[in-house]
Amino acid sequence: MTVTMDTLVSLCKRRGFVFQSSEIYGGTGSCYDYGPLGVELKNNLKRLWWRDFVQSRPDMVGIDASILMHPSVWKASGHLDNFTDPMVDCRECKLRFRADDVDTRPWTHYCAATKGNRFTIPAGEPCSHCGARRTLCPDCGKGELTAPRQFNLMFKTFMGPVEEEASVAYLRPETAQAMFVNFENVLQSMRLKLPFGIAQAGRSFRNEITPGNFIFRTREFEQMEIEYFVNPRDTVEGRPADEYWHDRWIADCMAWFRRYGLREENLRLREHGQDELSHYSKRTVDIDYRFPIGWSELMGIANRTDFDLKQHAKFSGKSLTYFDEERKEHVVPYVVEPASGVDRALLAFLADAYAEEEVRGEKRVVLRFHPELAPVKVAILPLLKKREEIVKTAHGIRDALAKQWRVVYDDTAAIGRLYRRQDEVGTPYCVTVDVQTIGDSEKGEAGDGKVTIRDRDSMEQARVPIDALPGVFHDLLSGGAWAQVASRYPATT
Ligand SMILES: [Zn+2]
Ligand SMILES: [Zn+2]
């Protein structure tokens, strides 16, 4: 099924994934806050990316650079001159529009043919009374629009106490430049050999004029970027090294999204046409995802050649080269850049995990998150909260498991309701403690020391000794099969 954006937005708010920023003040334009479950999900996503693409690879290292960089960085990168959108302003109401966006919205029209009545006319259509097309401001319907002017998307601020041109600084619009600027530092300090990559995850800022679609496009966002440097003179499997590694990264990134739950039918590769390519890019491929808003870019993987290092060498006056020991020559490496957005990836994983199904005549909403992504791994639910021994045992289990995973305790509703709540936030496993677990000392009945684990996806149960829980969850949460646990520890009922 395809989930709508409204459904996701409402679930995210209701269950503490994503809130509008500064909501009590009416919200800040296209800024969002991650709530208690959202931050867990986002941290998991970033940790998996770091583990799989940095930590586990011998050819990768990471950095964490400052958001405020030397203004010359943005001159060299081209952002100061080219990171712009053409904008038009209304002379009357002062609203600003992207020039190519003015006719993609309904427009306000005071129609002379109907004594100046006010109409709202669908985007791009003429007035049905007088036949006029939009020429004035689409919002107020009165003001003339200025000629298009270039508007830079970087957030500008000032360093130090004086607000003057010389102290202008920018919030970085991408994390990538820090990898180029630190190329020499990283190369020398880590004694690296080509090919190698530098990764960074962190915040970036873009003063988007038409942001929107929830966390798909926001003004403040997080990126996970890699700059993978290769020797353009090398060949791998008979192909130029940069082309070989470009394809490798495309395949690795696709495999990564699939591994953590994005479905094949919702992913596709999109090759940039010649007219779309930046002048320095040899080839760019996007991984598109079928978001609730339609097919859109999930991430891009570009072969940026030696453009960035050469630009920074030119503007800084430093040599940014690599000494090729074999050929006894200095070379400017080519770079392959797999660039992805954390918020966008999170939205894709949310959308793909969402399912509604009918269970015994009732609607069940479930987020089928991969266990490693799930914000809460295990929920501990006491079957009777009036039995002190049950509650105590449940808390004890929570405390023990919480040393390794995010584990919650909940006794605020009946068990059926508690299961549904955990399903809706994607908790893969629930543990219930019942009378059988602890026994009944008054009747002289001993407990069996076992608890029931319930699997989110199959809703099957297993009966597992409390002592075995850490081992069982270690297997399950790192990708082990539920079927094995279910057959090893069958539920008695
Ligand atoms: Zn106006
Ligand atoms: Zn009209």
Please characterize this protein's 3D structure.
Helix content is 29%, strand content 29%. By secondary structure, the chain is of the alpha+beta class. The strands form ten sheets. Strands 3-11-12-20-17-16-15 form a seven-stranded mixed β-sheet. It has a five-stranded mixed β-sheet with strand order 24-23-25-28-29, sandwiched between helices. It has a three-stranded antiparallel β-sheet with strand order 5-4-8. Helix 2 packs across helix 9 and helix 3 crosses helix 8. The radius of gyration is 28 Å and the shape is globular.
The secondary structure category is: alpha+beta
What do the pLDDT scores average to?
A: 94
How much of the sequence lies in strands comes to: 25-35%
Query: Helix fraction?
Result: 25-40%
Order of strands side by side in the largest beta sheet? 3-11-12-20-17-16-15
